[in-house]
Every structure is written in C-alpha cells, then in structure tokens.
Amino acid sequence: MLANKRMLALGTGAVAVAMTVTACSSGAVQSGSGSTGAAGGAVTLKVATVNNGQMKDMEKLKTEYESANPGVTVNFQVMEEGDLRAAVTADVASGAGQYDIVTIGAYETPQWGANGWLVDLTPELQSDASYDVNDLLPPVRDVNTFDNKLFAVPFYGESSILMYNKEVLDKAGVTISQTPTWQEVAAAAKKVNTADMAGICMRGKPGWGDLFAPLTTVVQTFGGNWYDSSWKATVNTPEWKEAVTFYKTMLDESGEKDPVSYSFNECLTALKEGKAAMWADASVAASMLEAADSPVKGKMGYAHMPVDKTKESGWLWSWNLAIPTSTKQKDAAVKFVKWATSKEYIKLVGTKIGWSNVPPGSRTSTYELPEYKDAAKAYAPITLDVMSSVNPKQPGVNPQPWVGIQYVSIPEFQDVGNQCAQLVADYLANRGTIDDALGKCQTIAQTAGDKHKK
Amino acid sequence: MTTTTTQPIELEDVRAATATDKRRVQKKELWRNRGLLLPAVVFLILLTQIPFLTTIGFSLTKWNLLYPNDRAFAGFDNYTSALTSGDLWPSIRATVLITAFSVTLAVLFGLLFAVLLDRQFRGRALARTLMITPFLIMPAAASLIWKYSMFDTNIGMINWVFRSLHLPVVAWSTEHPMATVVIVLTWQFTPFMMLILLAGLQGQDKGILEAAQVDGAGTWRTFTWITLPHLRMYIEIGVLLGSVIILQVFDPIAILTKGTGGTKTLAYLLYERAFIGLDVGQAAAYGVVTVVLTIIVATIALKSVFKVFMAGGSR
C-alpha cells in the first residue's frame, strides 16, 4: 500500500516534470514542416511579421500585390514581438525554411548576416535603378549592413526625441532649445514638476528594450559605453556611475513616481492625460501624441534627444524585411521585399490608408512627399533631421566594435541588458547601491564580452 | 488419500479448489482492467516522459539558439552554472515566500468570507457568484487590472484613496514588489479557498452546533472548538492545492515587477533563461533542477493529502 502511494506520488511528480519541460522546450524544438510553393506558376510566400500598425497595413495591402502579380499568394503570420523573435530565431537557426520573408529588428540583422542565415540583398537592389537603394536613410542602411552587404531592408525606422507639453512649459516660463542638454532638461523638469504632474517621464521597467533603450543613450552621451573597442566591459566606470546617478536623481526629483511600472505605453498615457510634462522616447510616439483623438494634439513641442558630451544622442531602431537562406523561392521573395519597401508602396499606403500611417524613417524621399509633409508637419522634419544625423558606428565618445546605438549587437546582449536592468532597478528603488549594481553588471557584461574578444 | 477421504479433508479440498479458481478469475480480470488502461498509460508516458528525457538531453548540451554551429556535449556544465550562478537560491526563496504569504492570506480571507456566506441572507446566491469572480479571471488579465486600475500612481484606486486621506502616494511595484505580487495573488486565490471552506461549512452537522448552543457555548467557542477542527481537513486540502498552483506563478511577476526586489520565482527565472538568454542547454538544466525540487515537494505534499483522506473520518 505504501509502495503504491509512493508510486502515485512519483507519477504525479512526473506529470509536473512534463508540464515544466514542455513549457521550456516548446520554443526550442519547433521543427516546422515548411510549406513550399507548388511547382509551376503558383507561388505562396509566407511572411512572418510583428504586430505593429505599419505591418498590419502591409497585410491589408497585399491584395494589391497579388492582383499585380498573378499566381502569387502572400500569407502573413502576425506575431507579438517576443513571439516573433522566438519563432523566427528557431526557424531560421534550424534551417527549417518555414518562412520565405521574415521581419527582424536592427539588433538581429548583423548577427544573422554573420551566421549566414540571410540572403545578401545588395546585388538585387543595386542593379535595380528604379528601387533607388541610396534613397534608404544612410544610418538605417548602416545598421542593417554587415561586411558591406545589405542583409535586410528597412520597412520602418525610428529614433528618439524629446517631447514636451508646450502649454505647461510656457506657463512655468521654461523654454527648451532645439538641441538641449540633459542638465537643461533636468532643470526644466524640476521646475514644472508638481504633485499632480511629473516633470518628466522616463522608462524604468526592467528589460533590455525597456529601461536600457533610453538609459544606454544617456550613458553613451555621458561618455560611457558597454564595451571598449577590444570587447572589454566598461560598466564599472565613472561615466556609467555619473549617467545612472543622473538618471535616478532626475527620476527622484521630477520623474513619475513608480518607475518600475513605466515603459513606452505607460509614459504615452501619462503624457496624453497631462500627468507628465516631458518625455524622451521613440520618435514614433510623436505620431500618437498628434493623433486625432489625443488630448494634447497640437500642444506638443519636439526637440532632439538631450545630450551631454556628444552632439547627438538619439537612438536608431528599424524593423526590416529579410529573406532567410533556407527559402526555396528566393526570386519571388526578393520581388515582394522590393515592392514592400519601394517608393510606390509608401505612396500606396498614403492614398489607400492615410498619409499619417505611412511607414516613417525608411526613405529620404518619404519626407519630400507634399501630402506626408502636411499630415506629419509637427514631427516629420525633426524625425528626419535626427535620423539622418545619428551615427550608429560611433554613438558615444569612444569607438565601439559594433554598429548600433541603444543595443550591442551580440547574442548575449538581451540577457546582459535584462540582468543589468534588474540590478539598476534595485538601485532606482533604493534597495541597493550604484556601485553594487554596476559592479555585478560589469561581471555579467564581461562574461559575454569575453566570447567576442579576438 | 484417493479412495477414502474423511469429510474435513474433502471440505478442505473443496475450499482450496474454489480459492484457486477465484484467484485465477481475479487475475484475469486484473489483466483485462490493465489492458483497458494501457492506451491511456502509453499515451501518458509518451506525452510526459519523452519530453522529459529530451530535456535531460538538452540540459547536457551546450546550445545557445543564437550560436547554431556551436553545439556540443557539455556534460554537467549547465548544472554547475545553474547551481553556482547565484540565481537559484534567491529564486527558491522568492517562490517559497510568495507562495507562503499568498496561501496564508488567502486561507484567512477565504475563511472569513466562507463564514459570512454560510449565513442566510437575501441575495446570497448573487453574493457568492460575485465573490467567486476573481478566481475566474485569467491571471494575466487580473495582473493588468491591478497594475492600471489599482496600483497606478496616477489613476489607480488605491492611490486615489491615499490621496483623499492626505497620505503619501505609494509606488507599489517599485517600493514594495513582494507585497504587490502577494496582494494580487491573495485577491485571486481567496475565492478558491472560500469555495473549499464553504463546502466544509455546509457539510457540518447543524445538530452538533445546536447541541453546543444548548450546552451554553458562545459563538467564538463554538467556532474555535467545533467548526475549526471540522474544517481542518478542508483547510489542508486548500493549502495543498493552492500551494501547487501558486508555486508556478508567472503572470503577476512578468506584468508587475519583472522579477525585481526578490520576486523572481523559479517559473520566471526559467522563462528568462529560455526566452531572453535563448540558452536552451542552461534553461533545460534549470528546468530539471526545478522539477527535482517540485518532485520532493509534491511527494511530501501528496503523502499528507493521503493522510487527510484516510484519517479524515476519525477526526
């Protein structure tokens, strides 16, 4: 009897085992049967994409492409960013060939290109004069280039800018220049900070893409960086300490009260509801603050991302279309990618969906379209200005061994950024000291950096 | 022996013969029963043990999804790094603390509400349905509701009350991450405990309560001396089931605290290793370690459940 009970207990334990195990292995062992297009003229292209507004618009417009190219069917798989990253990485890494076109971030492109997972698009694009590859914004082209080969084409791109409520700042007699410094912004935030309205809203939610997106740019403009040119981690430096302390002091004095809960969406709400006066974040936020239903429409002012020791400190991010080498329909895939990132496509979105919905930050010519200039006059000029002046090859004071601004394009960075963000969050919440947080983060970053030392 | 047999022997023989026959029949029936169960057992083994063995296999390999070409046998390296990285023990501590606090508070509140709802009053059915709702809401949705409409410093109700009383605004997720998670879990699991305890209360013999009243015992003494001992079994089951569910908690941590301030439970740690670290080998090793710990807890816990079922009648 006792033995039976034990068996039962163990059996139940084993069920628990299986639950945990399937949970943790499901992301890894997606074999994917892979759908290849039928022989002959009929071609089915499978596109994996992220659930952003601009991507969903592309799905709506795919019928235009299908009717212009008889025999081609385009199937979209729209996923949330995290799911997309896991699904596409597993598929491409294992060479399963489930997707013909994948949507990837600027963080992935150089790494995947180096792994030989992506088709080099340079010859196809350069040979086509009507595509005009040089019209793609140079910094965005840079972050998607590895070894002089363009492995992905930008679908839309963004930088970061400072957004402020003009009404509130005017009332307090504060003016912000077009190219402010962080000290200037911190002082202004302190001045307009009241019990009801935070002076400034900044991301504090722990995560490499949350807290560390703006914080990395602050560190870089204060003269610090994650690694030096020989992949030695440089986190426990005075520059880092100064930057992170500055960030915390600004949050303590005039930031939102619960930083750990705040990231992009929370700050957007706070700005719209008049609960924060300023915000430094992704430039795409401007189009949301100026949307027809926004209470602060027309009341906002925009400036370059604040700086300290560098000239610019805006970040650079883009969502791009790329073709995995495992595809069996390369030519059809290239044709679709070219269509979706062409000048004509941008005009198509403008006429069919609306000019404010045009994918921004990919092509210089977009900013010359009169209709777009009119629809996005509040933020288009500054977005273009910032996006073409940031330098992803050396955003900080010192040279760095990778191309990119608010991230380090090594596979370990997600993990490093995440763990460090949690340590910094403990410091922001007064649970730990800055030296302790940066010291631990230095060790984590160095372990990752060691793998890339030449 | 063969020709002359005495009656007792004959009787014994007869008895012996029937006994063997019966045993044979029983055996046959047993095998048929087992045969009927076999498909389910095979299915269960396929579904549970093969992934488990695969995971053990993964845990012994060096495999980061982003380094596809660098895949090799790693021996126990992943286990060594899991046990020495210093992430495991804080995580076990967080899991135990969160589970202990949430279950205790949920049982206390559950008991209170169960006692209240056991009384007769108008609209009792409606009140019961409303009380159960928190348990029916998806954990992720519950965490989001709490994050925005309760804890938020600008629009949250808790801070609205604080502001109205001229108390300082509390930044829940930043300043009190553990309390934040425990509050959400308590809110979610109080109805669960309440349901179990209510069933216990309704199964109580009203005659005994009347007898106690006749003997002059007050409400408090009746409750502590008669009702609580009767409920003990139900409380034990509630604590056991609640702990098993809360041990795997993930949603409130992912949504509210992101594992900061001592709230990184084993489930969240595993998620981080697998989906942010993208390190399949190390995540599998953490998974196996978690499972070993869970088996230990489950074995102890299940034993106590059987004790409850068996000794239940004598209490």
How does the SSE layout of this entry go?
The complex is a heterodimer of chains A (454) and B (315).
Chain A: H1 2-25, E1 43-50, H2 53-68, E2 72-79, H3 81-94, E3 101-105, H4 109-114, H5 122-126, H6 138-143, E4 145-146, E5 149-150, E6 153-158, E7 160-165, H7 166-171, H8 182-192, E8 198-201, H9 212-221, H10 238-254, H11 264-272, E9 276-282, H12 284-289, E10 300-304, E11 317-322, H13 330-340, H14 343-352, H15 370-375, H16 380-389, H17 413-428, H18 434-450
Chain B: H1 7-59, E1 61-62, E2 72-73, H2 77-84, H3 88-117, H4 124-136, H5 139-151, H6 157-164, H7 172-175, H8 177-202, H9 206-214, H10 219-246, H11 251-257, H12 266-276, H13 280-311
Antiparallel strand pairs in B: 1-2
Helix pairs in contact in B: 1-13, 2-13, 3-8, 3-10, 4-8, 5-11, 8-10, 8-11, 9-10, 10-13, 12-13
Give a structural overview:
Chain A is of the alpha/beta class and about 450 residues long. Chain A has 2 domains: about 45-160 and about 315-385, Periplasmic binding protein-like II (D-Maltodextrin-Binding Protein, domain 2, 3-Layer(aba) Sandwich), CATH 3.40.190.10; about 160-315 and about 410-450, 3-Layer(aba) Sandwich (D-Maltodextrin-Binding Protein, domain 2). Chain A has 18 helices and 11 strands. Chain A has helices at about 1-25, 55-70, 80-95, 110-115, 120-125, 140-145, 165-170, 180-190, 210-220, 240-255, 265-270, 285-290, 330-340, 345-350, 370-375, 380-390, 415-430, 435-450, and strands spanning about 45-50, 70-80, 100-105, 145, 150, 155-160, 160-165, 200, 275-280, 300-305, 315-320. In chain A, the strands form 3 sheets. Chain A has a 5-stranded mixed sheet with strand order 2-1-3-11-6. In chain A, helix 2 links the parallel strand 1 (about 45-50) and strand 2 (about 70-80). In chain A, helix 17 runs antiparallel to helix 18. Chain A is globular and about 65 Å long. Chain B has about 325 residues and is an all-alpha fold. Chain B folds into 2 domains: about 5-50; about 75-315, MetI-like (MetI-like fold), CATH 1.10.3720. Helices cover about 75% and strands about 0% of the residues of chain B. Chain B has 13 helices and 2 strands, in the order H-E-E-H-H-H-H-H-H-H-H-H-H-H-H. Chain B has a two-stranded antiparallel ribbon. Chain B starts with 6 loop residues before the first helix and ends with a helix. Classes of the chains: A alpha/beta (about 450), B mainly alpha (about 325). The interface between A and B is large, with 53 and 57 residues.
